[in-house]
Design brief:
Number of domains of chain A: 2
Oligomer: heterodimer
Shape of chain B: globular
Largest sheet of chain A: 2 strands, antiparallel
Distance between the termini of chain A: 33 Å
Radius of gyration of chain B: 23 Å
CATH architecture of the largest domain in chain B: 3-Layer(aba) Sandwich
Helix content of chain A: 55-70%
Number of helices of chain B: 11
Bound molecules: adenosine-5'-diphosphate, magnesium ion
Number of strands of chain B: 14
Structural class of chain B: alpha/beta
Order of helices and strands of chain A: HHHHHHHHEEHHHH
Strand order of the largest sheet of chain B: 6-7-8-3-9-10
Order of helices and strands of chain B: EEEHEEHEHHHEHEHEEHEHEEHEH
Helix content of chain B: 25-40%
Number of domains of chain B: 2
CATH class of the largest domain in chain B: Alpha Beta
Distance between the termini of chain B: 33 Å
Chain lengths: 317, 306
């Protein structure tokens, strides 16, 4: 076991000695800070002021009346509170709105998980295929260690990288968010709609949960890129294909929407947050179904990676 | 000689339908430098890839200290160090980190041992520098260093002199001889250049089109060829013949205007100086091929040697 740990140390050393790794980290930091500054400067992003006074219920009621008024587009006072049902829910359940705060910022920065996915795909594709490109694979595989072990050390290293970046995104968003928007809403209640139903939940635990669900999508894309790289030993092919599918994934699902098998497409299932907030792609699928589909794809990806990495000859370039 | 350290047993490789290696059989012993000589495309690298388990063989087996590379890979490879083709390292890391990387992959290699191999290949001063800044010669040395970390019984070097200048080649030759003679390592060196092989190897196996055509012991070959056949174009012919007979004490043949005689290699300069002193005009002097060269060229065809 200790030599497995050493293999992971090796992979980390190689990863963090490459400039690209640091450039990716810096891009993430810049985007988080940039988003914070833009949100701070331009209030349209944060929905402007919230009705937080003593008579917030009347103000929300008024807002709802404006929203429902039949005379043209209403010029409402609180652009952050546009959902009539949600406002009604707040009034009925006595959930006072809060100003835009750190948790809103952290929650919104979950959009940057796409960027973390992109970086993780780059790392996952390179970690095996680059060894072939550099020619170092020949020195790597002539050691008293099985190819299986070497492959899994690489895979675990990719997951460690993905978790590290996701954690960095969360923590940095939290720090930047608290500095710019204040900590007041720590225990705030988050009101959202899911499948036409209004729900409320503690914003902190909900945000953490959403990040963890995002990790599943991140991991699936990384595993896909890892598989392509292990099979074809080509970094660019793996990066290109994985990024293309990541971007085109939902369009592919939409395109085949009316086919019976569409719900088995990987990308109909990768976003587990669809079961938590908003509406799922297909009415017939639920969290359990998606997890089962993902598990099948996952096993397939891992198996292909393993078979090709361990069985194929390491021949000349 | 004692038990072989490495044995190739009817090793074959077929890629697609093309037989690339057609059944190699030979043994390599501790303390010897074995040359694997053949023109480009003969199958040297392919054979080496099979020896170290990078390629699966279609048939046959390679035994290293009695362990099969096919069925007992970890135990077999434990005794092997090597470079396959170019000494490719991670260019973005220092030489030291590159060595550390490989040291971590084998049991029981201390930092002291890493220092030791660095010293052995003479890279102390540049070891903290990124490998991307190394010259080919330095990378070759670093390649040898990583191959020696775990004190292997077999060292396999695929074209280790490729791209090196003469002083680099001399250095590599010296390491290799030292390892074989002092540490008892079995060294396998491949090359497509005969003259290099002659200088560093004890035995040379000649491979062509995936077949081993002959194994020669270099010392024997050298002993046989101590005496060289020299041909010369000089005037006046009669004076030259007389002078040569006097100096060498041997017969001189005249063929198509060229004088041919045999002589110890080291006496060639003296003889030429002697002729010059006597006022003989020398237009050309050629040393004809040694027997090994003859053999090699006959076997592989003249066009393919550099
Ligand atoms: N992956 C491969 N697929 C098909 N043919 C190959 C492959 N690798 C090598 N060969 C062929 O095998 C022969 C031997 O190549 P190689 O072992 O590299 O020779 P050497 O190292 O002696 O120059 C060549 O004819 C080469 O074209
Ligand atoms: Mg070769």
């Amino acid at each position: 076991m200790s030599n497995f740990f050493k293999l992971i140390k090796n992979e980390q050393m190689k990863l963090y000695n490459q400039k690209a790794t640091w450039i990716m980290a810096i891009i993430l930091v810049i985007l988080i800070i940039g988003a914070g500054v833009i949100f701070k400067v331009d209030e349209t992003f944060t929905g402007g002021e919230a009705p937080t006074g003593d008579n917030w219920k009347e103000e929300l009621q008024q807002q709802n009346e404006q929203l429902m008024s039949p005379d043209g587009p209403p010029d409402v006072e609180y652009p952050g509170y546009m959902n009539v049902e949600e406002n009604q829910y707040r009034i009925e359940n006595d959930i006072k709105p809060t100003e835009y705060n750190v948790w809103d910022f952290v929650r919104e920065n979950r959009g940057l998980v796409a960027l973390v996915s992109l970086f993780t795909i780059i790392v996952a594709a390179g970690i095996t295929a680059n060894e072939f490109r550099w020619g170092t694979i020949k020195l790597l595989l002539i050691r008293p260690i099985s190819r299986t072990k070497i492959l899994f050390a690489k895979y675990i290293s990719v997951l460690i990288y993905a978790l590290t970046m996701l954690f960095a995104l969360f923590v940095l968003s939290f720090i930047v968010g608290s500095l710019l928007f204040g900590m007041d809403g720590f225990a705030a209640t988050y009101v959202y709609s899911q499948a036409e139903e209004i729900k409320s939940v503690n914003i902190f635990s909900f945000t953490v949960f959403q990040y963890l669900l995002s990790f599943v999508e991140l991991m699936m894309m990384a595993t896909f890129a890892f598989m392509i790289a292990a099979v074809f030993r080509n970094t660019s092919l793996a990066i290109g294909l994985a990024i293309f599918l990541m971007m085109a994934g939902s369009s592919i699902v939409v395109f085949f929407m009316d086919k019976g098998w569409a719900k088995y497409i990987l990308f109909a299932n990768t976003d587990l947050n669809q079961f938590i907030e908003g509406t799922p792609f297909f009415s017939g699928i639920n969290l359990g179904f998606s997890i089962a589909v993902l598990a099948v794809y996952y096993v397939l990806f891992m198996l292909l990676s393993w078979v090709f990495f361990t069985k194929r000859d390491v021949a000349g370039a | 000689m004692s038990k072989p350290v490495m044995q190739l047993k009817d090793v074959k490789k077929t890629i697609g339908k093309t037989p690339i290696i057609k059944g190699l059989n030979f043994d390599i012993y501790g303390g010897e430098v074995f040359g694997f000589l053949g023109p480009n495309g003969a199958g040297k690298t392919t054979t080496i890839r099979m020896m170290v388990g990078l390629m699966e063989m279609t048939e046959g087996d390679v035994m290293i200290k009695g362990h099969s590379i096919n069925s007992d890979f970890k135990k077999a490879i434990h005794h092997v160090g090597g470079i396959v083709e170019n000494p490719e390292m991670y260019p973005f890391m220092s030489g030291w980190k590159n060595l550390l990387h490989y040291a971590r992959m084998m049991p029981g290699i201390s930092e002291d041992r890493i220092h030791e191999v660095v010293q052995l290949v003479g890279l102390e001063k540049r070891i903290k520098e990124k490998v991307g800044k190394y010259s080919l010669g330095m990378r070759q040395r670093l390649g040898i260093a990583q191959a020696l970390l775990h004190k292997p019984s077999v060292l396999i070097l695929d074209e280790p002199t490729n791209g090196l200048d003469p002083s680099g080649i001399r250095e590599i030759r010296a390491y290799i001889r030292k390892l074989a003679e002092e540490e008892g390592v079995a060294v396998i060196v491949s090359s497509h250049i005969l003259s290099e092989m002659e200088m560093m190897c004890d035995r040379i196996g000649i491979i062509k089109n995936g077949e081993l055509i002959s194994i020669q012991t270099v010392r024997d070959a050298l002993e046989q060829t101590e005496e060289k056949e020299v041909s010369m174009e000089a005037t006046p012919v009669d004076d030259t013949v007389a002078a040569l007979k006097e100096m060498t004490g041997k017969d001189v043949n005249i063929q198509e205007g060229r004088l041919t005689f045999t002589i110890d290699r080291e006496k060639i300069p003296t003889v030429i100086a002697g002729l010059v002193q006597k006022g003989i005009q020398i237009y050309s002097v050629n040393v004809n091929r040694s027997t090994l060269e003859d053999k090699f060229l006959d076997l592989i065809g003249e066009g393919s040697i550099e």
